[in-house]
Amino acid sequence: MTDATLSAPPQVTSTTPLIAADGVPLKQKLARTTRRMKMRALFLTLPLVLFLIVSFVLPIGQMLYRSVHNPTGSNVMPNFAVQIENWDGQGLPSDDIIETFVKDMAAARKNREVGKTIGNLATRVNYEIPGSRSLFTKTARRADKITEGPYMAALIEIDKKWDNPNLWLTLQRVTKDFTISFYLAATDRKFDEAGSIVRADELYRIYLPILWKTIWLSALITALCFIIAYPVSYLLSTLPLRTSNLLMILVLLPFWTSLLVRTSAWIAMLQTEGIINNVFVYLGFIDDNQRIQMIYNMTGTVIAMVHILLPFMILPLFSVMKTIPPSYMRAARSMGASGTYSFRKVYFPQTVPGIAAGTLLVFILAIGYYITPALVGGNDGLLISNLIADHIKKTLNWSLGAALGTILLVVVLIFYWLYNKLVGVDNLKFG
């Protein structure tokens, strides 16, 4: 055997594992390195994930849960809630169930624990049967005096409204922890005396009309923002850099001013004795006794929201238009195309990503806007977000507010899905 044979390296086959310099198989070392990189990326993104969970996922989940979960009835009358659940709903409940109802009502009358008083149950039933709150408060004051049966006769003696099967069917529903009643109320529906879902009385049909008005106003505001923003963005993209930067400062100036200040300024300008009406009177467009009502109505809401949301349309459009070379239009003109045809066939299609981004951004902001409609809208210019806030802060009907919020969220997701189908989210450009 020669020396060359002794010093030859070992043969490497396809089944032989590759070894790193430190003797560890290369495949194992690569897997270890990849795992280390994934863990590093996870730790870097963990604060953002936790922030999204705490500020976004959990509140939405709580809203969805609250919209169907309302344990007021079972908290106030736990024993009655268990017994009435098995009632067949025919006629009036048995006297045993009524006895439990009377004893739970007497106990609730003495209870001072938050959320478990008879007033909470009266408010909950009043959502289903308006005007029934006084019935419960009056009966609760005399419940401890009912010591023997027949209990139903004793209740009817207090108030004849207890001789109504629909009232007891309603109590059977409200003592359940989970209910769809608030979604029915949010869509102007209710349960009738037979337990079927029907349209609410005309007097109480308020939520769907305001929801449609919110969608219509949001679309109108988006269209007006586009009509104003497109020529402004085109001007900014074609002017010299120094001039366009100066004008861009004017566009961004509203972001540096408080929203309340801007809204208050519109109140001062739009009122009947405000600046705009005074100018119209001075120029002779209208008489002094014919001043235009432009505040605390839908007109004021549209004007103020267009002004506030206009930068959100200008910025995406400007960012896209700035990247379109002017030589494209010159080339189209040199080949015999008219200015209108060149704009329609060459320039406008290239701005579609900016249009899509701006309209989507403005529409989603407008459909959930709250402060401006609350300050300048009055009763005529209120949006669905104002009703949600009223139920959360004033009427304390959190379940109905959560149901309205969930419906608004679903509407936004539907529009986002339609937008994705028609335009494509991948084509959006925000800058």
Task: Write structural notes for this entry.
The protein is an all-alpha fold and 431 residues long. The protein is built from 21 helices and two strands. The protein has helices at 3-6, 26-68, 72-76, 78-84, 95-110, 118-128, 133-143, 151-158, 165-174, 181-186, 207-238, 241-252, 259-270, 275-283, 298-321, 327-334, 339-350, 352-367, 371-376, 384-393, 398-422; strands spanning 189-191, 197-199. Helix 5 packs across helix 7 (133-143).
Topology:
Layout: H1 3-6, H2 26-68, H3 72-76, H4 78-84, H5 95-110, H6 118-128, H7 133-143, H8 151-158, H9 165-174, H10 181-186, E1 189-191, E2 197-199, H11 207-238, H12 241-252, H13 259-270, H14 275-283, H15 298-321, H16 327-334, H17 339-350, H18 352-367, H19 371-376, H20 384-393, H21 398-422
Antiparallel strand pairs: 1-2
Short recap of the structure:
This protein is mostly helical and 431 residues long. Helices cover 67% and strands 1% of the residues.
Q: End-to-end distance, in Å?
A: 73 Å
The sequence of SSEs as H and E is HHHHHHHHHHEEHHHHHHHHHHH
The share of residues in helices is 55-70%
Tally of individual helices = 21
What number of domains? 3
Number of strands: 2
Structural shape: flat
Helix and strand composition category: mainly alpha
CATH topology of the largest domain: MetI-like fold
Query: What strand order characterises the main sheet?
Result: 1-2
Uncertain residue ranges:
none
Any guess at the CATH architecture of the largest domain? Orthogonal Bundle
- As a whole number of angstroms, the C-alpha radius of gyration is 33 Å
Question: Could you give me the name of the CATH homologous superfamily of the largest domain?
Answer: MetI-like
Largest sheet: 2 strands, antiparallel
Q: Estimate what percentage of residues fall within beta strands.
A: under 5%
On the 0-100 scale, what is the average pLDDT? 85
**Text of the CATH class of the largest domain:** Mainly Alpha
